[in-house]
């Protein structure tokens, strides 16, 4: 199956662009980013805090089956424009990747389809490349069986 | 043998991902790595063995100690390694799409 998500990461840049078209109305796509219980499901992490407003902040945490915390991240929301745009920072605890700036733009394509442009800017070229080479560093990609579990409940 | 497939299997485990994150910033001994987990030491050793076999980790002898380091050679070109990153986001967004297609607004 073709991957619908596109990543544009030029060599020698400290940024990248993630784009994806969704078979969803704009409002539903945006909602998936703002409701904690929905974010928990698709990001595969526990949402400790999610304040969707200018100068609001958020906190994610993921534990393994034994209860060890394997991932913790947080950030602040710089701009929150419903159904249009979210600008936020993202920083993981205990890893040397620094803080990244995420500019998420939501666009209506048709009544039932929408598009997300995620522009991510890192502190340096080296830090961007490090994150790219360790995709699981974002840690929020859950174990495969957990993905299957969720998809099964939805069938 | 399909090395890349094995790499995906290697990073499917949360403890192994946590180990790679630990050694991403500095080379560590098996003992230092194990001290970060409640898991039994032999279990951590097994994880280190798998990561080494998949060439994600490399061992360096320093005196009597063996240090584990990220295998930079295997992660050299961004272009080579962008696919797992893209796959990660694609998986997430596929789940998002499925969840939202089934979403019923609360009253």
Could you describe the 3D structure shown?
The complex is a heterodimer of chains A (155) and B (107). Chain A contains four helices and eight strands; from the N terminus they run E-E-H-H-E-E-E-E-E-E-H-H. In chain A, a hairpin with a 6-residue loop joins strand 6 (85-92) and strand 7. Chain A has 155 residues and is of the alpha+beta class. Chain A starts with a strand and ends with a helix. In chain A, strands 1-2-8-7-6-5-4-3 form an eight-stranded antiparallel beta sheet. Chain B has 107 residues and is α+β, with helices and mostly antiparallel strands. Helix content of chain B is 59%, strand content 13%. Chain B is built from five helices and three strands; from the N terminus they run ααβααββα. Chain B has a three-stranded antiparallel beta sheet. In chain B, helix 2 (14-25) packs across helix 4 (41-53). Chain B is elongated, with a radius of gyration of 18 Å. In chain B, 31% of the residues are buried. At the A-B interface, strand 1, strand 2, helix 1, helix 2 and helix 3 of A face helix 2 and helix 5 of B.
Give a summary of the structure in a few sentences.
The complex is a heterodimer of chains A (155) and B (107). With 155 residues, chain A is of the alpha+beta class.
